[in-house]
Structure formats: C-alpha cells, structure tokens
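Session log. Operator J.P. requested a structure for one protein chain; no other inputs attached. Running the standard single-chain path with token output.
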Amino acid sequence: MVARPVLALASALIVTLSVAGCVSIPSAGPVQAYPVTQGPDAQGEPYQQVVIGAPGTGWSPQEVVAGFLAASASFGDNWQVAREYMTPQESEAWNPSWSATVYSDGPNVKAPVYTVIAAAKPKATPKKGQKAVKPPPPQKQAAVTITGSVLANLSGSNLAGYGSYAVPSTSAPQGSLGAQPTIALVKNAAQQWRISSAPQELLLTSDSFKSDYQLRNLYFLDPTSRYLVPDPVYVPLQATPADLMNGMVYDLVKPPKDWLSDGATRTSLPAGTTISNVTLDGVTAVVDLGGTIAKASAAAMQQISAQLVWTLSGSGQGGQAVQSVEVEVGGKPWIPPGNSQGNPVQRDSNTKYSPASGSGPKSTFYYLDGGYVMSRDGISGPPVKVELVGAGYTQVAVSPDGNYLAVIDHGGNLSIGPLGGKLTKRSGTGYTTMSWDANDDLWTTSGNQIVMLRAAAPQSQPITASVVSSAGIGNLSVPLTAVSVAPDGVRAAIVVGGSSLYFGAISWQQGANPREPTLRIALSPFDVPTRIGTTFASLTWYGADNVITLTQTESGPAVTEYPVNGGAATPLSATPGMQSISASSGYVLIAGLAKGRMAYDASLTGSWMPITSGVSPAYPG
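Structure written below.
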C-alpha cells in the first residue's frame, strides 16, 4: 500500500518545533509523488510525499512526538514506522483506523512535562536468609500536549475500525471542537523515549486531510420512500477495497449520526441485519447479508438493493471500480423482480429507486410577460399563455408536478393556486424567494425566516422552520434571505444574510405536543466557501446533488456551481445584466436579464443567447 503524503505535516512540525525550542527534526526519506483522487468523479493529481524514518538515538520527547505525528499521517504498512515510536504494549493497542482530528492551525507540540513515578514496593517480606529484593528505580515519564485550532473531528462509527465520518461545521469557533490531547512517554530498556499512550485518532493538518481523504456518498431513502438521498462522508484514500466496501455497507445498516439522519432520511436495511462479507468479483460487488434481512419483503429488498448499488458504485479504489452489485441473503443470490433470466446482478441504471433530479416536463419553463404567466417547452417551443395574473408581479414558481402556481408581487405579497385556476392571496407579507418541493409544499423566505405553505390548504398559516447547526444545537438567528429545496424534498440550499451559502436537511421533529411536530432544517457540516463581498441574487438546483447560484459582485454578475457534498465549486460564465437563474438537469440554463429580457446557455460554457422577452424564468420546482 502506498504511504500517504505528509509533506505539509512535516513543514508544520518544523515551524512548531522551531518556536518550541532547539530540537532536531525527524529524518525524512525521499520526496515522492503519486496520484490522489479527491472524489469519485475527480481526476488524479500528483502530491509530494515525505517518508518519515524511525526515531533516532537520544531523541527528546518532543522529537519523538513530532516524528510520530509525521509517521502516523501515513496509512502505509499499517503504520509500521509510527509504531516504532511506541512501546510494544502501546504499539499493539493503538488502532486509530480512519478516525482523525483535523487542525486548521496545528497540530503543535508543546514542551514536555516530566514526572517521576516510584516503583511499587515488593509485597512479600523476604524470609530469613534470603536477600531483600531491590525495588526497581523510579521511572521517569513525560507528557506532551498537542495544541492547535481544531477544524473537524472525524470519529469511527463501529468497532470494526472503519466507518463514515462527517465534518463538524466550520462556523463553530476554531479550537472549540475537542480537548487538547496528551501523549505520554516512558524510557525503554535502552533508555530511549517511547510513547506509552497515544490518542486513538490521527492528528492531521488540514492540508494533509484534504490530500488523504476523499468524499463518497452513502444513499438513504427519503421519509416517503420515493427517492434516494446522497449522504456525503469522508473515507481515507488508502483504505483497502474490502475495508471501504464493508465500512460503507455497515453504515447503511447503522447510519452515522449526522445532519441527514435525524428524521430527514432512513435506511431500508432492518435493524439486526448482519454483514457476512463484501467482496469484489471483477466489477461486481457481492454483498452477503444475514440476520433479520432474511424476513424482508420483496419491496424492501428492492430498496435495499438500490441503496447498495448507488452507494458502492465507483468504490474499489486502488483497483477496478464497482459497476454493479449482487445481493446475497444467507449466501443465496437475491433475484430482482421481473428478471426473467434469473440474473442477480444490478446496476444503478436498472434499480427501481434512484436520486431525484426533478419531475414533470423538465424542458418546460415558465415566466411572466404582459400580465400573463407564460410557458415554453424548450427554447424552440412557442410561447403559451398559461394564466392571466395581472400586472405588478415579479416572480413565478410552478410545482414539480405542474399542478400548482405561486406568484409574488412588487409588495412582497404571495398568492398560490392551481395552475390555470384561481389564485389565493396568502397571509403575511415581505415574501422574497420561492421553491416547491415534491409534496406540493411551497418554501419561501419572509421576515428573515424560512417558512413553508401548503398549497392544498389555502387557509392554513405559514409554518416557520427552525434552522439549527449540524449538531442540532442552537437556532440560526441571523437573517435567512433565500431558500431553494432539492428535488428530493429533503435537502435545501439556504442563503444567510445575503452573502453566505449553506445546505441543510429538512425534517419534522416531535415536540412537547405530539399533535404539533415542529419543522426543522439541520445545517450540513460541509463548509461552502464564498467570496467576500458576494451578494446572492438567485439559486437553483441542478440535478440531485448540485446548486447553481447567481451572485452580484463588484465586477458584475457571477455564476457558480456548488456540489452539496462540500467538493470544489465550479465557476460558470455569466452574461451582463443577469438578475435570476433557473436550471433543470440535462436542459439549458435560463437567465432573467434587466429590462424584461431573457437568455439561455445550452452548454453551461457561457454561450448565452437571447430569447423572447419575459420576467423571472423558472423551471418547475
């Protein structure tokens, strides 16, 4: 197995130890490069690697700890070099697996604190004629504290040593996540300092973490069991294919406690399901399950199969990537319904369940023109008058199934009704953005809050959503200025204060009154970096896992595509005068321009072309 890159960590240690005192730096091997993949769809990029050697003679506790941190940043050979910095007992017990603490500043090695522990006195009194047993000399110990600003904690979810890991929100104050770990050292028989107690997690710099871990998606079902919802997690690049697949299947059986798990999604694998083994047969992952799954219905098995196929597709890093899955129950292949050939192998293209990318006539978009709600089926389709709403309206939104229409006027008043039918003005005012979910519920922002309105209940009051941190603690009190709900109805993109973008998971939570559950949005732990001075003007979902935003900057409009899993953002080309943007997976981007004009981009490359006049163009959703 190839060792992980540790150049950034070694550099950080040089700076740290230079400040801490005059100590030697661990010897390093040759600098190497090897391809690293940042995600399932990313291309390999070369990273420099420093191979850390064994501890030297006469090293101080600081030097030993610094060398250990650098060596433990490598998964290679099961951390054999890192274990040379330990006592035999600690080497056998130490197993951090995939767990890690990630530092934005650090890890820093403080000066050691020394203590002397007297050896225990002999319990038995020597008999007459016997020499007294001389007690061993007092043992000198050292304790080295590791400090720094903690960016994230990644903790294993099971006793097998692998699992999934979510990154806590970077909006939390740096250094607030976790205590300062201490590493204990003693001298061995050769009077060399060795580590006798180390944290059961890796201590990594943020650069090392970015180079060494990749994002992957687990897939769970939405509460209505209609769609698969991707749950992004981090796994180490150097995990073996067997560990990677077994760990991801384990997390489908016992979902990790993260932003999507508390009521927003569910797993179809019943509690009590056991994993016999997950193996790779060519490009097919063979998943042998047991336990309570033996009693699962045919419908449940279809859901289980879909979760496994979408989760494992593309895994198997370091060898052939998984392209299909065969599910076995008690060693016997499960045959999907309707498979006349008796073939148990399934691909993501032929599962009954898949991630939601939108519903209804995706190529049809709507807009306002001359007091009418208009529609066009693609760029070449003729404009069609859908409904007369009158003058003064600035925004229009149509539900994904095409059944409901919502409009907002200049005064921030909102009206909802059947498409082509009577519109009803809803209570409240100051409405700004609109987004429909798959249940025909309209999400909007009003009074610096996110509210939801039921289209089928015109007299009902808006329901305010409580927006909380990824840990479910503390409401977000800053102004919430925009919202857009994903096609699966579970995830939402949220703009805070006009300038910060977040993602969150929607769920209903049981309150003090069982008859009145509360609506909650738990923010994703993945940071979405945005430019200082950016003002979000519009946002729209593009497929199941990406959001496209329009921002106004000092240099003009900017269009950016953000993956919900925390991956790198992609800038797209803008056109002058852009005021809004709408997307539908596989179809052209539609932009609303100044002075009642519209434009489209068929390739997402910035080849914007004008189309007929209109205001607030929007695809259903």
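Operator note: The chain has three domains: 7-118+139-212, 214-350, 364-614.
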